[in-house]
Amino acid sequence: MALGSVAMSAALLGLCLLVVDARQVSARLSSAEPRWLFAFFAVYVLQVLLLGLRWSLIARAVGVPLGWGRACSEYALSILINVLLPTGLAGDGWRALRHSSREPSQRLSKIFEALAVDRLSGQVGLFLVVLASAPFALRAGLVTPRQGAIVAGVLIAAAWLVSHWARRSSLGTGSSASLGGFLRRAASLLLHPRRCAGHLTLSLLLVASHLFQLWIAARAAGVVLDVFLLCWLGPLISLAASVPSFFGSWGIREGASALLFASAGLPSSAGVAVSLLIGTFAIVSALPGALVLIADARGGRRDLAAGQGLAALRGSLTGRSVRCRESASTNETSGVDSAST
Length: 341
Prior knowledge:
This protein is mostly helical. It has one domain (2-6, 38-297). The protein is built from 14 helices and no strands. The chain has helices spanning 2-19, 22-30, 35-62, 68-84, 90-102, 108-132, 134-140, 145-169, 175-191, 193-220, 227-241, 252-263, 268-286, 291-340. Helix 3 (35-62) crosses helix 13 (268-286), helix 8 (145-169) crosses helix 9 (175-191) and helix 12 packs antiparallel against helix 13.
């Protein structure tokens, strides 16, 4: 699967560069100003803080203790792994395993459930933004009203089928019952009014931050996106980038950007250049996540040194008490011998 995702991304990315004017893409990339990377990174830091807050809220709602600071650091590390490894989920799996090692009293399935609900919250927020931007897409002529009605009908039917299956699966046993139970619990967490106000607000803010990063990358490539273009281009590009079958969204993001930019009357090469900058900026911004491993290694060495020092002190005290007892025993024996003599 990893090799397949790399091959699909490379093939689609190469196709995009063949279809569009590769020289214009290269020219836009070479003229990009590095100062926009700092703005992109500042938004990335905000995203990590929001992601950590959302995960900690959902984890505590599931019943798994997780602090905001720890959640932020673990999210930063998982993002780095996801953008560097061709799986898209390795970072999330490692995040769950590290959380499980710190909370051995919690079941691993419960920790994975909190992680999955956290991911679902992000998808729900993106889906709502895509629906809200549908009028902009209709106005731009990207889809016709009939096509929009068909898509809405299919989505409503799919949601009804999933909810119907989840209710019926509660009567069965095995993996289907487990999956149905997870869907019901996830729905209760995601749709509960009080909890929804927390996690969904954070998910919508995260989608807005991704739109802002698209605007930053566009400015770096010499493209100015107004609010109208940003509101209907951004959610669709983000939706395409969320497809998990591609390595770090490479290829699918560039292809979608080329098509959407062309439909908006902009050069398709500009869309490819903007997407390439987004991917590059994302990798550079995620690199500080490696500091989490360095901090853990230093903390482990400090804990090991403290443990060795405590063991040495305990051994020293134990040895001193033994010597004291031996000395007292010797004195008592000497006193008895002198008296008897």
